[in-house]
Design a protein that fits this description.
The protein is an alpha+beta fold. It is built from twelve helices and nine strands. It has three domains: 20-124 and 202-257, Gyrase A, domain 2; 140-196, no CATH class; 263-308, no CATH class. It has helices at residues 3-7, 58-68, 75-87, 107-113, 160-174, 176-185, 190-193, 211-221, 228-241, 246-257, 264-272, 281-294; strands at 20-22, 30-34, 38-46, 49-51, 98-106, 120-123, 144-146, 154-157, 202-210. α2 packs across α3.
């Protein structure tokens, strides 16, 4: 590397063609509390500056027009282009918008969250630091009974007596925090001391993600089938970005989150007016749910089904 050559590179500073404003309105962070000890804070956005009269959506259009040509620059037609891009799954322009969040949540939520591997993450380290005396402790109304149809979830409230037993169990688990800190005071390494802590203890991280992959995260985690606790975080994230990229968020709701995807077999069932041509019990139930959402009449006969 020749530093002299690098130092001689001339950088041209090009003045802005129009007036810009801060999409975060000069704020250091936009923060929302989640549950007792959790929170989500939007700490940065790219672009941070947008032309006056526009929103950060402009960066999506700017990127798309590299491919599509200059075209029109009216805000109304920008909206049409963004909706066209989303509708036809031209995803790369949405990757030109990024958000960085500071998130505080229980470990059991973090372990679900981290499965979305399309973000940059830096998490609080319990090898270097002492974990906080903060635990997720649901109210009695939030204690759910195991779902019969969904093996990984809960839905209806659990009976009061069993719910109280569960909350007492959590009290006992949380009481182990004192043992954790006592052992650290006696010289136990933090990297070993942490392994006795429950997954209800709170952690935190910085999480940076582009808009395309954020919408994928939100579509899954805002869904009613997602666990309520992580759904609360996803709803909060959507609320934080909605005013910054309102056109893209509207397209997300219209074409993804509140849309219905139809399979080939489901389309054939609509055309024929007959039951869906499948012996898969789960697939048949999914179609039945969609049929009711669409307000379609019941078919005359139902096929025999076998387990999913």
């Amino acid at each position: 590397m020749d530093l002299n050559e690098i130092n001689n590179i001339k950088i041209e500073e090009i003045p802005a063609e129009c007036e810009y404003y801060d999409v975060m309105k000069g704020s250091h962070r936009h923060s929302v509390k989640v549950h007792d000890h959790g929170s989500v804070a939007l700490v940065d956005s790219m672009p941070r500056l947008a032309p006056v009269g526009q929103t950060a959506d402009f960066a999506i259009v700017q990127a798309a027009r590299v491919s599509y040509g200059a075209g029109t620059k009216k805000v109304s037609e920008d909206k049409g282009l963004i909706r066209y891009l989303f509708r036809h799954q031209h995803t790369s322009p949405f990757e030109m918008v990024e958000f960085k969040f500071h998130c505080v949540m229980p470990v059991f939520i973090a372990r679900q969250w981290i499965r979305h591997r399309t973000a940059n993450v830096n998490e609080y380290s319990a090898r270097y630091s002492v974990m906080p005396d903060k635990f997720y402790h649901p109210s009695a109304n939030d204690v759910r009974k195991q779902s019969v149809s969904n093996r990984q979830g809960g839905e209806e409230p659990l009976d009061t007596k069993t719910a109280e037993e569960f909350l007492e169990y959590l009290d006992q688990v949380e009481a182990s925090y004192k043992t954790y800190t006592n052992l650290l005071d006696k010289g136990l390494s933090r990297e070993l001391g942490r392994i006795g802590l429950p997954v209800s203890v709170y952690t935190e991280w910085y999480w940076k993600i582009d808009l395309h992959n954020l919408f994928h995260f939100l579509r899954l985690r805002m869904d009613s089938h997602s666990q309520k606790e992580i759904r609360d975080y996803a709803n909060t994230i959507f609320a934080l970005i909605r005013n910054i990229v309102p056109v893209a968020c509207e397209a997300f709701v219209d074409y993804s989150f509140e849309s219905i995807k139809l399979t080939r077999l489901e389309i054939e069932a609509i055309r024929s007016g007959k039951p869906i041509n499948t012996t898969n019990k789960r697939e048949a139930q999914e179609w039945e749910d969609k049929r009711k959402q669409l307000g379609l009449p019941e078919p005359d006969e139902q096929p025999k089904s076998e387990s999913a």
